[in-house]
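#lab-general

N.A. 3:47 PM
ok so I finally got the sequence cleaned up, no stray characters, all 256 residues accounted for. can someone with queue access submit it? mine expired

B.Y. 3:52 PM
send it over

N.A. 3:53 PM
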Amino acid sequence: MKKSHSILFFQYAVLVFVMLFSGNCRKDDNDKPGNPTNGKTTAVFNSGLSYGTMTDQDGNTYRTIVIGTQTWMAENLRTTKYRNGDDIPEEKEHTAWANLKTGVYCNPVSIDSIEIVATYGRLYNWYAVSDSRKLAPSGWHVSTLDDLTELIDYLGGLNVAGCKLKEAGTAHWSLSYEATNETGFTALPAGYLNPEATSFPGDIFAIGHNLYGYYWNATEFNSNEASEWAIAYNEGGIWLFQTSKEYGCAVRCVKD
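B.Y. 4:20 PM
back already:
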């Protein structure tokens, strides 16, 4: 599926322009000190639900939401540090990711924009997810396939769970296909990084489409692949994948 994606550079440029300047129109009211991205998200949360908050090791403050018996982050992780305070290296060159066996991150579309990072979070390879220094803040863990399965079952199954998790409206999604965000999860199309891509930008950073959100699970299948799941702009379900660990995906954490 991933290798078939393509996008015109003009479409990409227009999208980036919109993402860079839309943050001036809509600010998060949960502005907390500690990190310059706090309070800068343009995500549209469910105003009918009550959110909690948590802060990571990098000073980023996030909304959290209770869904069934689980408590999930309602925003994508954006830390640049492991739990012990060690820096996670940033790697902006996508082809370098193919040869890495250690953790790295990048900003979506490799742009240093506070509003984009605050809204979409950052992309990590699976080696950052599985690093013993822990990517998740204290008291939390990167979602596992078991966590996701429990969430999907609670929401009524694979075919309908996506609609209940996606941000409603078209502020960020190119099409709001039956999206209700009734859970408050507020999934966004942060895309992914493809280290094998040869064209720019669509095959590298799917955020250029505003079509897909890809998330790692902390569940390993074999020495080369790990668990990943995705939500699409034009479907109500969730897709499950076995994905190369070198890819870059967003991360959501679950409370211990």
